[in-house]
């Protein structure tokens, strides 16, 4: 039967020709360029993931954790780990840096400003200086209203210390000061007064900047003869 007559018959009797055509099973269809079925192709991702997770179990170390490869890399068990020569160079460099910091402690930090607290039995003077020693502010008890014998004592030194703390904040010196060193001189009553102000509410902005506290009180070893002790009565 010719193809022309077959096509005519198909148009005239579609139901009969449809039954005579061979049926192709959908289960036998395979993916192009592959010998696996569709169902097996869908499971390829999970199989690869299982192989990656179980790869370490086949290693000679015997560790079954999926993170064992990362752990080995962190511990330096792989071939690309740094050698002992590199570690020795690093330790040698660390020792040299430590020696440089001992010789020059302010090499990696800004040098501190200084707040000199000069306390003697007649007056208290507070002086704020830059790291090079140039003064920024110097105030004594006489500049806040105390005169003559009234400049000595605990209360004038306390008021002076509180006034200096406020002046440091109002004049914007806190923007310039990174580290502060407090230098005491003398054993007058203003020494305790300044310490209480610094540790109190008035010194809350200055207290965190203090990196060092030193004492530069003059001590005499021999030298000239001292004045005679004053005795009354």
Automatic annotation (TrEMBL):
Q: Which InterPro entries match?
A: Ribosomal_uS11, Ribosomal_uS11_sf
* A single GO BP: translation
Which intervals carry biased composition (Low complexity)?
59-68
What Gene Ontology molecular-function terms does this entry list?
structural constituent of ribosome
Q: In its keyword annotation, does this UniProt entry include Iron?
A: no
Chain spans, region Disordered? 13-92
Spell out the protein name for this chain.
Ribosomal protein S11
Instruction: Indicate, by first and last residue, each region the UniProt record lists as having compositional bias (Polar residues).
Output: 17-40, 81-90
List UniProt keywords, sorted A-Z.
Ribonucleoprotein, Ribosomal protein
Native organism is Penicillium freii
Q: Does the keyword Ribosomal protein apply?
A: yes
């Amino acid at each position: 039967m010719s193809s022309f007559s077959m096509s005519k018959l198909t148009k005239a009797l579609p139901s009969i020709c449809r039954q005579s055509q061979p049926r192709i099973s959908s289960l036998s269809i395979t993916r192009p360029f592959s010998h696996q079925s569709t169902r097996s192709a869908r499971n390829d991702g999970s199989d690869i993931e299982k192989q990656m997770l179980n790869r370490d179990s086949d290693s000679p170390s015997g560790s079954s954790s999926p993170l064992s490869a990362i752990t080995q890399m962190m511990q330096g068990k792989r071939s690309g780990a740094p050698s002992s020569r590199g570690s020795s160079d690093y330790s040698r460099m660390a020792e040299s840096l430590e020696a440089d910091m001992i010789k020059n402690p302010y090499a990696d930090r800004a040098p501190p400003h200084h707040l000199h607290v000069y306390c003697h039995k007649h007056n208290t003077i507070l002086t704020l200086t830059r790291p090079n020693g140039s003064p920024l502010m110097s105030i004594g008890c006489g500049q806040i209203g105390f005169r003559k014998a009234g400049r000595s004592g605990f209360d004038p030194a306390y008021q002076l210390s509180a006034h200096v703390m406020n002046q440091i904040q109002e004049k914007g010196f806190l923007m310039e000061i990174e580290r502060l060193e407090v230098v005491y001189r003398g054993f007058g009553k203003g020494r305790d007064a300044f310490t209480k102000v610094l540790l109190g509410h008035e010194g809350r902005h200055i207290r965190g900047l203090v990196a060092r506290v030193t004492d530069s009180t003059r001590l005499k070893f021999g030298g000239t003869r001292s004045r005679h002790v004053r005795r009354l009565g």
